[in-house]
Amino acid sequence: MHAPKKEPAMSTPPRKQLVVIGNGMAGIRTVEELLKIAPDLYDITVFGAEPHPNYNRIMLSPVLAGEQTVDDIVLNPVDWYAAHGITLHMGKPVTAVNRRQRIVTAADGTQAPYDRLLLATGSQPFVLPVPGHDLQGVVTYRDIADTNAMIEAARTHRHAVVIGGGLLGLEAANGLALRGMAVTVVHLGDWLLERQLDRESAGLLQAELGARGLRFALSAHTAACLADAEGRVRAVQLKDGTEIPADLVVMAAGVRPDVRLATAIGLQCNRGVLVSDTLQTLTDPRIYAVGECANHRGMAYGLVAPLYEQAAVCANHLADFGIGRYVGSQVSTKLKVTGIDLFSAGDFMGADGTEAIVLRDPVRGIYKKLVLKNGALVGACLYGDIHDGSAYFELIRSGASVAAQRDTLAFGPQAATALAA
């Protein structure tokens, strides 16, 4: 008798290699989404320029204010990477990518091959190119190192100037004031948060922050940072000659997509790495980009919600499902300053063909502005009471008619619906 023939053993196909450049919120959220739907498809390697695991960058403001610690804002500790079989290289910025051989090289020589590459390099803070911008005591506000530098400066110095009256600048100013510094915000615009608030709501915000001790120089052009005898910053000089004392200067005048690596390796960039609806770069379909470094349909998003929406679609395609499309995001804004509530979304300023419904309660410090067009809500600006912000945002996203609730909509969508019934 002949022995029965043995069936050949089924061999497991080798895993593909995924390399992620950027250990921030967008890149690691993409990895998380990928692990949910295709946990065994890739061996994953992550390179991060900072010597930290993934943390919640938008919560740096509470750390600066002394309300949280760095450990409190870590999203994925080091053991999370190990538990998921992810090779993590912290403090190793990537300096080269050989697209022909598909090899990534870090500054210290560490290399990793890839079948798919994900760029999540984020953005760089914009430093005003004025004389003295590189003096000791002039910092940006972007990461943990910047935050720690500001905390150290607040321990031994008295006067701070924050250049930029946007979200990040106001959060920095508030945090430094809470740490005992005398803070002046220098802002080029006519009012604070001109991209997120109208003039009236910005006035309420300025009054509230002024009551906390902050000072403001609006419509002000920064001309130079002036040095003392030891080479440390001592003042900020404005274009009109005014000098504002400053032992610490925080540049918070905006960010730019970090496309230095993408440009160096020949990817098409224009205010971000150009990507399609699948988050693949237009230049190389093996390379994807998500987050602040990506330019999708002319937009580079700096808020967390769009980044997470991109991550879900990108993971779908990395998993070879190929059914997701990212078509852009509606965004809303909140300020992370304890005790101050503001919210804005959509066309809150009001373009041609719109009408505004405004509710004011000066005693309670409440301001609500709703902008309608063709019977639909297209924008909202709330100060002092943002309880209905999410509901207004959903109405803006849906484009549903609110004509029947027009007269009562300012009291909230739920109240308006009940009163219209």
TrEMBL record:
> Which cofactors are named for this entry?
FAD
Q: Which GO terms describe its molecular function?
A: oxidoreductase activity
- Entries under InterPro entries matching the protein: FAD-bd_OxRdtase, FAD/NAD-bd_sf, FAD/NAD-binding_dom, FAD/NAD-linked_Rdtase_dimer_sf, Rubredoxin_C
Q: Which UniProt keywords apply?
A: FAD, Flavoprotein
Q: Which residues belong to any copy of the NADH-rubredoxin oxidoreductase C-terminal domain?
A: 332-399
For this protein, the record's Pfam families field holds: Pyr_redox_2 (PF07992), Rubredoxin_C (PF18267)
Query: Per its UniProt entry, which superkingdom is the organism in?
Result: Bacteria
Q: Which residues form the FAD/NAD(P)-binding domain?
A: 17-298
| Keyword check for Flavoprotein | yes
Query: Is the keyword DNA-binding assigned to this protein?
Result: no
Q: Which family does it belong to?
A: Belongs to the FAD-dependent oxidoreductase family.
Stated name of the protein: NAD(P)H-dependent nitrite reductase large subunit
Q: Which organism is it from?
A: Aquabacterium commune
